[in-house]
Design goal:
Shape: globular
Largest sheet: 7 strands, mixed
Structural class: alpha/beta
Number of helices: 17
Helix content: 25-40%
Amino acid sequence: MSACGDGGGGVGSAVAAALQFFAASQCLVREPWLPDAAVHNSSSWDFIVVGGGTAGAALAARLPGTVLLLEAGGDPPQESIIPGFRHHLKGSEYDWNFTSVDDAQSSQALVNGQQLQPRGKMLGGSGSINDMVYARGFPADYEEWAALVGEEWNWTNVLKYFKKTEHLTDERIINDPELMKYHGRNGDIEITGLNESTYTTKKFLEAFEELGFPMVKDMTYPDLIGAGRFSHTIRDGQRDSSLTAMLNKQSWNENLKVVKNALVTKILIENDKAYGVEALISGDSFTFLVDKEVIISAGTFNTAKLLMLSGLGPKEHLREMGIEVIKDLPVGDNLHDHVMVLTYLAADNGTCFEAESQMELIRYLYDRTGSYSRTDSMGAYITNKDGTVPEFAIYPSCTSVGQNFYQNCLNILGFQHKICTQLQSELESSELLGLAVVLLKPKSRGKVRLKSPDPLEAPLIYSATFSDIADLDGFPSALETAWSIANTSYFRAMNARVVELDIDYCNNIGTEDLKCKAQAMATSAWHAVGTAAMGTVLDRKLKVRGVKGLRVADASVMPKVVRGNTNAPVIMIAEKAADFIKEEYFGF
């Protein structure tokens, strides 16, 4: 089985055992990652792409000329491509395992008041550990960008780039001419979905419909906002990402080289022009030179870190770190994220679907079908007063009686032992209905800063959640809307009730109001953006202001977060960056 690569995360042994049992002589789950290239120190390239995550993988696959892609991690474990294992790599060696700094005010129900910020440390980046939800945000999000930086980023202009990458096969959408106006059929990444649904999702949707939410066939459709099932980036029962669908298809391209486990420590800049990078590979220092451009696609946290290590950032902070200031730019500022508050209902047994895992895994290995081959996630959007855009989202989940929820509660969600123990105790006799209530357009802004000039140190992440207290205003109503599911016909018959969590922070300050609970339970929705934003750090074509030959393409460029998951918008950004580059250097 060694030809498949070693398993990783919390499921490596389970996968290995099942494979050995089922087919000891062949690899049934396999993805051919590009080989690790042997490249010379001081070699020169047309383009250097730093980071092989969602944006970097897409960008490197699109660029002409000689391209060097440097990725700080290695290959993903093979189970990363199995949709049913989508949660298992968070907190593993394939995760950067970032945490926020405790601000002593928000997130106090979390261990040490720190929000966990899982980010993929491997080829594919966070696109190798995410939930594969295909969301774009809404037209208003991009009109906001256009007002700040230029019409290249308005809804009409970004839509064609979403469609460019999209290979839509979702059977709920493809036969509807109105919906298909917004979708593409000939792109690289498959966007799939089924007419059939799980029992669990069906019951949640019925509840939302009873509460008055419109039922939506296509959650990316801009003209109807309500509740529905998402489309997902899955092809033939496997994760489909910019890595698997784009970069891995470049084995024919002799001009593209990928170097893994290569941590870029500095962008080399002289006379206001980037001319290369320094990197650590197996403990040795390498220099790589560039003729045209360095493109940073290291993600919201690591992009900001690298720019600051290279002398691009707030001058006071750089001087404090002892770093020569090349350009005084607001790098690391404008950090923001969707704010997620988790709340729970307990109910009688019968709603949650839990297939027998060993048989389902064998079924998956046999023909890539069954529960491991898909995800049926759904959401419900709560709109603003005039109904034009969503302000909050509710994302339900379901845990069966007797399941071990404690470890995920502690290690993935990051809640304190006391809260995880309380939730686990509910599962002794009840099902646990999780309701993630998410603020989609926060006003609060945090920052990323260097902990030290050492490139091996993780950056400091100041989430500043609820630093603008107006972000708390809508949570009481949104939480009550989520809880009202318990009063719908089906869940009332299942004796659903709100789990009243014992939150020390709210007890200590003498209040039990919903704003306090939201403030204490708040965590990241893992959609952080904005630390190298267009309009401040970058120009409208993603170039770093005042530095030639240096561009950024990842979630850090978003001046404001979109109202939805960020994976598809990041691929769109990479597609636009590739076209900006091809137009500038090659005239097409």
